[in-house]
Write a structure and sequence with these properties.
Helix content: 55-70%
Order of helices and strands: HHHHEEHHHHHHHHHHHHHHHHHHHHH
Shape: elongated
Oligomer: single chain
Number of strands: 2
Low-confidence stretches: 46-73
Mean pLDDT: 88
Largest sheet: 2 strands, antiparallel
Strand order of the largest sheet: 1-2
């Protein structure tokens, strides 16, 4: 955090706040608070003398208060006020709070002081913050949420929460697209509680968001709030999502809408959780998915996900079908065939061992995972022949894992 220390030194040197800080992230303000507190005493400027007088190290002149001008008072600059708001002495911090009304840019530091460990500072800061227009807190939402993790940090975020729930919907909308993830989540939760987001919009948020937590939240809300006329929009969007968990939510929702048979299309999905949801929906509709998997794996064109699905819900009688697919020309099918055999607990070591030399790294890794429980049956010489520099790196790693699992080499400390 060298940039924070630099900012603290620059403020202590009198540089204006707008020249020191340029749209800092929420975590910058608590860090700046700590950095100023750690400055050498000569840079802090203000302290309390034993007699109770306010002194300035640069002038050594008594000051009855930290006010902004007036008889017996020296006008404070914005940078001086910022430093005093973060001073190690709580009395200095408390007195500096009255300067914030004259310097709106210091609002983030006032918010930090609302979570101050010293009760007099904390109570005075909260009183001042309560007098400010609630919408002024919106640009500081990320900081409020960050400070809410502290023991005394809930006050400011509760003010914001009340404003968002009682104020105009446009204020909530302003937070939804925030680049700060915590702020965006907070805004969406309030929007959901207020019913501000239509099911179709929620489904699009679930499908397109880069925040996994927000995706789950919006997918659940979209399904819970959709009406009959929303089914096609909501389900079509969820089922087309890139994230497996969102597709799974869409597949599961097919049961709620009575469209059980449409789950067939997702039996061979690349995601295991989607395949499991598709099987569940079909069973709820009275269809056994196992014959469907067997038919998909016996055809001329085999989808990799169908191979895994057969292993996930088949029985030992399906092992030979999967063994036939171990030599399939498509690496993806071979990988899923190995995974299916592993799921069926049908992995004869001698029969699967040749895949350690497969041309596909993915197949080699899948075969290694399946063979690890059987590593003790391998000849050390056979494995050592593959742990040499002229072998592909993935084969060397496979041999090393199996040698280690068999106890022939010691684990790396």
């Amino acid at each position: 955090m060298n940039d924070v220390r630099t900012a603290a030194s620059q403020l202590a040197g009198g540089l204006p706040l707008h020249e020191v800080l340029a749209d800092p992230p929420p975590e910058f303000w608590p860090a700046l608070d700590s950095a100023i507190r750690d400055l050498p005493p000569r840079d802090l400027g203000t302290y309390v003398a034993p007699g109770g007088r306010w002194l300035r190290r640069d002038r050594d002149a008594p000051l009855p208060s930290l006010g902004r001008g007036g008889r017996g008072r020296r006008e404070r600059s914005e940078s001086e006020a910022a430093v005093e708001l973060c001073h190690p002495d709580g009395r200095v911090r408390e007195a500096a709070l009255d300067l914030v009304t004259g310097f709106p840019a210091l609002l983030p530091l006032l918010i930090v002081r609302c979570a101050d460990w010293a009760a007099p500072v904390r109570e005075r800061a909260r009183a001042l913050l309560s007098e400010m227009p609630p919408p002024s807190l919106l640009p500081c939402a990320g900081l409020l949420l960050l400070l809410a993790r502290r023991e005394q940090g809930r006050f400011a975020v509760d003010l914001l929460d009340r404003e968002l729930r009682e104020g105009p919907a446009s204020q909530v909308e302003d937070l939804l697209d925030s680049e700060d993830r915590a702020t965006s989540r907070f805004g969406h939760r309030v929007a959901l509680d207020r019913g501000l987001l239509a099911p179709g919009r929620l489904a699009r948020l679930a499908s397109g968001s880069g925040d996994a937590s927000l995706r789950d939240l919006c997918a659940e809300a979209a399904i819970a709030s959709m009406r009959d006329e929303d089914h096609d929009d909501v389900l079509g969007t969820l089922l087309a999502a890139r994230a497996g968990r969102i597709r799974a939510a869409g597949v599961t929702a097919l049961r709620r809408t009575g469209r059980h048979d449409e789950a067939r299309a997702w039996l061979a999905d690349r995601s295991g959780v989607v395949r499991a949801c598709a099987r569940y929906v079909l069973r709820q509709g009275g269809t056994d998915p196992l014959p469907l998997y067997r038919a998909m794996c016996a055809g001329e064109v085999t989808v990799p996900g169908a191979v895994s699905g057969l292993g996930e819900c088949g029985d030992r009688s399906d092992a030979e079908t999967l063994w036939a697919l171990v030599s399939h020309p498509a690496p993806g099918v071979r990988v899923h065939a190995v995974s299916g055999l592993r799921a069926l607990d049908a992995v004869p070591r001698d029969r699967l061992a040749p895949l350690i030399d497969d041309s596909s790294p993915a197949v080699v890794r899948a075969a290694t995972r399946a063979l690890l429980p059987h590593a003790g049956g391998f000849s050390p010489e056979w494995l050592s022949e593959r742990n040499v520099p002229d072998r592909p790196r993935v084969v060397q790693v496979a041999a090393q894992r199996l040698l280690r699992a068999a106890g022939h080499i010691r684990p790396t400390p």
